[in-house]
Design goal:
Elements lengths: L10 E8 L3 H19 L3 E5 L4 H7 L5 H9 L2 E6 L14 H11 L4 E7 L12 H4 L3 E7 L11 E4 L5 E4 L6 H16 L4 E6 L5 H17 L4 E6 H10 L6 E4 L1 H12 L9 E8 L5 E7 L16 H13 L4 H16 L2 E2 L9 E2 L2 H16 L1
Parallel strand pairs: 1-2, 1-3, 3-12, 5-10, 8-9, 8-10, 13-14
Antiparallel strand pairs: 4-5, 4-11, 6-7, 11-12
This protein binds nicotinamide-adenine-dinucleotide (NAD).
Amino acid sequence: MMARSETDTPRRILLLPGDGIGPEVMREVRRVMDWFARRQGIAFELQEALVGGASYDRHGTPLTDATLEQALQADAVLFGAVGGPKYDDLAFDQKPERGLLRLRKELGLFANLRPAKVFDALIDSSSLKPDLVRGLDIMIVRELTGGIYFGEPRGIETLPGGERRGINTQVYTTTEIRRVAAVAFELARKRQHRVCSVEKANVMESGVLWREEVKALHEAEYSDVELSHMYADNCAMQLVREPKQFDVIVTDNLFGDLLSDCAAMLTGSLGMLPSASLGAPGSDGKRKALYEPVHGSAPDIAGKGLANPIAMLQSFGMMLRYSFDRDDAADQLDGAIGRVLAGGLRTADIMQDGMAKVSTSVMGESIVRELDKAAA
Ligand code: NAD
């Protein structure tokens, strides 16, 4: 697995399995990575470290400086999940989630990519009618490090009369808007060449600026991509009315938080949802990147072989596509997952009548077997 092929420089990946089902689903990714290394000559140089509660148990902190340094040096980070009831009473800065937040901050991951893609075999798991979601494949790009969750002033204050007031500030700069819009335009070039930019320019100045800056960047550098604009409330409606009208949606932190969860549910289970977070390109042109399933550590099912590994596997698929430019390999993986589902195998979370219920590892093994068959 670690061997360097003559034509292929190993990709340095830091694996951070984390807590709960994190290590269980990461094990299945290693199986798939091993297959790509053995059968397709894609060389990976893997490092593994603790994060979240597992790191706290060993080192007294959810992310050590040494692990952060490894993440900064890696070509990409693959993250499982963190957290669990055991850690609920820890001080705020020792909580498992702080490990992930610190990684995002230090790696400067400002663009969060959340695909919503429906596998034909799971079409009945969607909350919408099959025709509306068959073949659905949209990508929501959410700004992750700015906007109202970080803007100043913020806080809760007591007014002279004794009444209290809570304050948050929506604030965006030209740079923050343009860099996330650039990610969306670049993604669209690899897809259907369409970007819909979403804000509320009708009632928010930050939205007016957002629209102006996205337009200006589009005219200057991405006029080959089709650009449209939509108000966020309308976008929420359109996502459940006719989701297939979208290719790439780009939006701010707050609206992206809501719209990406809404789009995710069009596809069915939490166990099927991958994500990526990207930063600025370095001197080599490559963006810092962290890939992780949307789900958490699922303590209720941890250690029971019940976890669905597909969200984690698809997160690795996104890494192949967006960090390593291996769309061919990512397509192979997507194809194998689709065929295993079409063949009737299901983990408990996506179980349907007449299908065969399988464990985490049987799902992983079956996907590898399917990769093998297609490559034979
Ligand atoms: P969760 O995503 O862990 O679980 C929600 C529900 O979905 C559970 O019933 C769980 O069994 C199920 N589920 C989740 N992933 C699944 C999978 N791959 N296969 C099958 N079923 C799956 O969310 P939660 O229960 O709210 O949180 C549990 C812990 O995870 C908390 O400590 C929370 O803080 C943490 N969390 C971490 C992350 C992260 O690491 N990025 C994200 C969300 C929650």
